Target: Mannose-6-phosphate isomerase
Amino acid sequence: MSAGEEPIGEIWFEVPRGSGLGEPELLVKHLFTSERLSVQVHPDDTTAKAHGLPRGKSEAWHILEAEPGASIAMGLREPIAKDRLRAAAKDGSIVALLDWKPVRAGDFWYAPAGTIHAIGAGLSLIEIQQNVDVTYRLYDYGSNRELHLDEAVEAARPAPYEAPFAPFELARGRRVLAAGGPFVVERWADAFTGILAPRRGEPVWLIPLRGEAVVGSEPIEPGGVWIVAGDAGVNFTGSCDLLVAYSGRAVHEALISRSRNERQS
Model:
């Protein structure tokens, strides 16, 4: 993978041209924030397709670095009617309605489509999202950027955030962080060798956080993103820690086949 266009504060990791992978269902970004980002919401698949889009947009964030006091807003402090949501977005009082949650390095958050959210200042994070060019802004702190009140109010669930998934350990060193939605995110932290076997049509995104690993014959390291579409040998050292993402609702339990000596240890 290579970094694509770099809007200020963002690095987009895109599939290289000529890779034969077409347009993947996921997109990975590295975000850096020096101030609060706009209050946003994204449509689910049904709403998005009704507006001519290929899919909706759920997102997940892994916090790499967080300044003291850093926070993100996830949902509202209490349920409100949609007409009140619209009024609060117009007059700016929506900021006080948001449920601002403190974050620190290593935290993981999953925002299903329809979640009202905002990323705070002083953060460096990895964003994994459905690959679609849609953002509905509810409020942007008086900037001149376009708001999308009609679309945002339609798509939003104006209620407190409820985590849709409880992370669990699938195997030694393999933790499932999100599943049951349009994509799965896992975190791997273990030393092993084996075969990575993506499901047909569901390439796997590897996002190293620290340490060393080899996929096929290529070393991977923090700061980059790799996409694997077919079977590949892997060798992860004991210091390796990475995020693994792929589309689909169900966890791919057979994604990694460890070597026999690893299974018996």
